[in-house]
Amino acid sequence: MSREAVIGLSLALAYLVFAAIFWAYPFFWLARLSVTQWRFFDEPVFTGGRNLLLTVQDPQFQQAMWNVLRFLAFYLPIAFGGALLVAFGLQHVGRGKTFVALCFLLSNVSSGVAVSLVFTKIFSSTGPLNAWLFGWIGVRVPWTTHPTLAMLAIALVVAWKFVGYYGLILYSGLLTIPREIYDAATLDHARPLTRLFRVTLPMINPQLMMVLVFAILVSFGLFTEPFLITGGGPADSTATPQMMIYETAFRRLQPSHAATMSILVSLASYLLVLAARRLFERKVVIA
């Protein structure tokens, strides 16, 4: 083995050991747990595909997976629209652009618990948002007690947290578009919307796909906001797979069942990401 190979392996050894301890071992333990029956205090008993059958037939788990798609239906338009506004806005900021960009990241690094508690007060029936709506149009919106509006409220909170981060990703893509392309489009008398859909968005396809992948992963990993704001209600309309895994493992004391759920959730998120990339990812070449 060459000296360079030895040095490279030595540098990577720390990460390999870390991955083996904190990723590979938990993964194999999870796979083993999913085909056994265990309640924390006894020895695991092999049960084969029983946990898989129970999970697939569980109506609450099915509802939680359906809620992921409902959340994405609200979240994606809000997140992409807000992120594009942030990205285009940063293009027109002169002095203090770095400070403005860092301000957009404040929500992303804020505590999810603190953010959820604040928005719980904002969305309450007597909160400032409903007080403003009642004074303006004379109605109070049941943000957290109506099944559809509750999911919209969750999507708004999560979008508020991540839209600045997504906007910076899209802004980095805008910086890579050569100015000559816009000049050529202007010479061809392309209207602003034509330039947006025919030039800008296709040229930042890698950044758009990154945001889309992040949004899908966020939707499958959602826990704090629905747990604290709605508790999964009303009628399980905002229950998420992560909430189901937590409920099953630590309240029902069925960690084997929860392990199977986590594997199915991971597989579903991977397949959705793969499908999104196959449908929307395009190779961008700047000659």
Automatic annotation (TrEMBL):
Example of a GO biological process term: transmembrane transport
Membrane topology, record value: Multi-pass membrane protein
Membrane spanning residue stretches: 12-31, 68-87, 99-119, 149-171, 258-276
GO cellular-component term (any): plasma membrane
Xref: InterPro entries: MetI-like, MetI-like_sf, UgpAE/MalFG_permease
Occurrences of domain ABC transmembrane type-1 (ranges): 65-276
Keywords: Cell membrane, Membrane, Transmembrane, Transmembrane helix, Transport
Alphabetical list of Gene3D superfamilies matching this protein: MetI-like
Assigned protein family: Belongs to the binding-protein-dependent transport system permease family.
Lineage: superkingdom: Bacteria
SUPFAM superfamilies with a match to the protein in the record: MetI-like
Name of the protein: Sugar ABC transporter permease
CDD domains referenced in this protein's UniProt entry, alphabetically: TM_PBP2
Annotated Pfam families: BPD_transp_1
Cell location: Cell membrane
PANTHER family membership: BLL4140 PROTEIN
